[in-house]
Design goal:
Helix content: over 70%
Distance between the termini: 21 Å
Number of helices: 13
Largest sheet: none
Strand content: under 5%
Number of strands: 0
Order of helices and strands: HHHHHHHHHHHHH
Radius of gyration: 22 Å
Shape: elongated
């Protein structure tokens, strides 16, 4: 809750000033400006959207993957005449697709080859085993946050959790604050377009650049680290 409040305040004040303004994707505008204002088609689209959302919510119950439900919904829009094949094809953001296709194997390679572990061990060697608990929390937060910008947050947390536990035990403090710092930081995926799927999905339509994410996300990471450094020891004492 404190982290959410701090993030909202940041985005409503500093963050919104750092966000690029005036981006308009003309390709998407071309796709939607010529759509007829047909009440029947609008109703069909609304029904399809509702069914897709329900299918996604019940994906495990009905044994239909979420991506399959989304594809079926897209095909239904074409079959019912709500979209033409050309409009549907033109609505695909190929930049996003190829970005995912390139970065997902890279993230997996960092995990499988041990590159992530090598980075983690190097940082641990720098801070040493005699550092203060707060320094360890900050260091593990930054390390976890740094890794999650380029690899899965689950992989980053799983990689660093055993390291965090061993460091905490070596200096005789509770591992819980260290683990909480690692877990929260693994979700602070703010500074790159490949850190988390929502970042990637808005890259093309918003005409954002890599540095746009850095300018907005890096201060938010710093705000998040400060809040976590203050709040975590209060809730999970050393």
């Amino acid at each position: 809750i404190p982290l959410s409040i701090a993030g909202v305040i940041y985005m409503l004040t500093i963050g919104r000033r750092l966000c690029p303004h005036g981006h308009v994707d003309s390709n998407l505008s071309d796709l939607t400006s010529d759509l007829p204002k047909d009440t029947r088609k609008m109703t069909i689209c609304a029904i399809i959207l509702l069914l897709v959302v329900i299918a996604m919510a019940l994906s495990k119950t009905i044994n239909v993957p979420m991506q399959t439900a989304a594809i079926i919904g897209a095909l239904a829009c074409v079959i019912t005449g709500c979209l033409t094949e050309k409009q549907a094809y033109g609505g695909i953001d190929w930049t996003t697709i190829f970005l995912f296709a390139g970065m997902l194997p890279l993230a997996e390679a960092m995990d499988k080859t041990g590159a992530g572990a090598m980075i983690a061990n190097a940082v641990v060697g720098i801070i040493g085993s005699n550092a203060s608990p707060l320094i360890i929390v900050m260091a593990m937060f930054l390390l976890s946050c740094g890794l999650t910008q380029f690899m899965s947050n689950t992989a980053a947390a799983a990689l660093l959790a055993p390291i965090g536990i061993s460091i905490a035990q070596s200096i005789g403090v509770s591992p819980f604050p260290v683990l909480m710092a690692i877990g929260i930081a693994a979700s602070c995926a703010f500074t790159t377009p490949v850190a988390t799927p929502p970042n990637t999905l808005i890259l093309g339509p918003g005409k954002f650049h890599f540095m746009d994410y850095v300018k907005v996300g890096l201060p938010l990471v710093i705000v998040s680290m400060i809040v976590c450094t203050v709040v975590i020891p209060l809730v999970w004492p050393f």
